[in-house]
Amino acid sequence: MQPSYIEIGAQNDESVKLFFGELFNWPYTPMENGGWFDTGSVKAGVHGNDTTPNIVVYFEVKDIEAAVKKVIALGGQCDEPSPNEPGFGRFANCVDPQGIKFGLRQIT
């Protein structure tokens, strides 16, 4: 599996846009609820109002249901996979047995 998407959650998304945009020279595309950076290899979504700022990496999988089952079998936890989102695919938010957040993404 390889990273296919990054989600940046922050209390203040405007600050994130300025900081990471300037730091890495990433172009930003605004959307209705946040937006995303074009990193050159993957998109990095940005959203605000997150009480625990973090960066979550989503890994591409071929079969999201099978990948969720494997995470659970290995002692992790996952949300139910999302419905297909046009232009994005399906995703599931997960944590490993220690509580490390990550995501799974099936591109459709």
Quaternary structure of the protein: single chain
Mean pLDDT, to the nearest integer, reads: 93
Approximately what portion of the residues adopt beta-strand conformation?
35-45%
Strand order of the largest sheet: 2-3-4-1-5-8-7-6
User: Radius of gyration in whole Å, from Cα?
Assistant: 14 Å
Number of strands: 8
What is the share of helical residues?
10-25%
N to C succession of SSEs = EHEEEEHEEE
Taking pLDDT < 50 over at least 5 consecutive residues as the criterion, the unreliable ranges are: none
Q: Enumerate how many helices there are, as a single number.
A: 2
Distance between the termini: 16 Å
Describe the structure.
By secondary structure, this protein is α+β, with helices and mostly antiparallel strands. 20% of the residues lie in helices and 39% in strands. The chain is built from two helices and eight strands; from the N terminus they run βαββββαβββ. An eight-stranded mixed β-sheet has the order 2-3-4-1-5-8-7-6, with helices on one face. A hairpin with a 2-residue loop joins strand 2 and strand 3 (34-38). The radius of gyration is 14 Å and the shape is globular. It starts with a strand and ends with a strand.
Q: What can be said about this structure in brief?
A:
With 108 residues, the chain is of the alpha+beta class. The chain has helices spanning 13-24, 64-73; strands spanning 3-9, 28-31, 34-38, 43-47, 54-60, 77-78, 90-95, 101-106.
